[in-house]
Amino acid sequence: MGRVTTGIALFQNKPMRKIAFLSACILMGFNAGAQSKQGLVVFERIAKLQIQISDPAFANTMPHERKNKFELLYSDNKTLWRPTEEEQEPEMHMDNGAGAEIRIVTPGSTDITYTDLNAKRKVEQREIMTKNFIVEDSIRSLNWKISPDTKTLLGYPCRKATTTKIQPSIRVNVDNGVMKREQVTDTVEIIAWFTDAIPVFSGPDSYQGQLPGMILELDVNKGSTKYTALSIAPEGDFKNIKEPKGKKITPQEFAIEREKMFKEMEKNNGGGNVNIRVGG
After folding, report:
1. Which of 135, 131, 92 minimizes the C-alpha distance to 276?
2. Which of 158, 227, 232 is nearest to 195 (CA)?
3. Which of 257, 272, 269, 246 lies closest to 125 in space, CA to CA?
4. Out of 67, 97, 174, 191, which residue is the most buried by the measure of CB atoms under 10 Å away?
5. Do 203 and 28 contact (CB within 8 A), yes or no?
6. pLDDT (tens digit per residue) in 10-33
């Protein structure tokens, strides 16, 4: 009888341990999911510079790319994209000695974007020639195609998604003191790697509300601009996830203000021969 009783007791204890272990796993998974809805991702952006200068000696001194670091704070389906304070690369000024100065600031280097993913709404602080504008707009989703390709980034399993979009650019030419601008439109290919292990439909720069998870790597126009996540942390200054302050304008009003500033720049430009492409 003693042996039978002992056998029954052992038989009863095994399922209890399994249930306890299963409960612990479920709890750990729940906590991980809860934590992943709030966090801080640091991104590096590498942007190729498309600058053509007629003076070969001056052209050889020009950089071919610029690196900037940004941080993405996310909490309660709200996000804030902004340049990092300690890593932000200062703007560059180049002078060819003949009166032509180039101020190199890659687009978006100082911009701040607040996004409400539930409301599909964003508010951007955008800079043009040291002047800030607050632009309010809705989130527009691109037509993504998710492929079966996978890879791991920062320990997170990621899936590949591709899309294309129409992107406007401005070419600025300064030839013997005369500045001319040309508006061009490109169709660019975008490749994103996203993880649904972070259940926030977010990512770098303006790519918010696009895919069912966090975008950790993004390639625009075959390497013209590339974003790569460097680190992910559960802690962050989440109280700063709020709209940039200032008078809000529409994207159409912003385009008008930008045109005015470009015309003013045309009046005040110096000599030299420079070809600059902005926005590609």
Report:
1. 92
2. 158
3. 246
4. 174
5. no
6. 334 444 444 443 333 333 343 344
The two tokens of residue 46 are 């590498």
Tell me the pLDDT tens digit for each residue of 170-188.
666 656 656 666 777 888 9
Q: How far is CA 65 from CA 49, 113, 183, in A?
A: 5, 23, 22
245 DSSP 8-state letter:
P
What is the average pLDDT across 80-98?
64
CA separation, residue 214 to residues 38, 40, 87, 131 (Å): 11, 11, 23, 31
**DSSP letter assigned to residue 179:** E
Give me the amino acid identity at 58: F
Taking a C-beta distance cutoff of 8 angstroms, is the pair 73, 83 a contact?
A: no
Q: Is residue 159 a contact partner of residue 146, using CB atoms and an 8 Å limit?
A: yes
Q: How far apart are CA 100 and CA 174, in angstroms?
A: 9
Residue 90, classified by CB atoms within 10 Å of its CB into exposed (0-12), middle (13-18) or buried (19+), is exposed
Q: Give the list of residues 6+ apart from residue 220 with CB closer than 8 angstroms, or none.
A: 188, 189, 190, 226
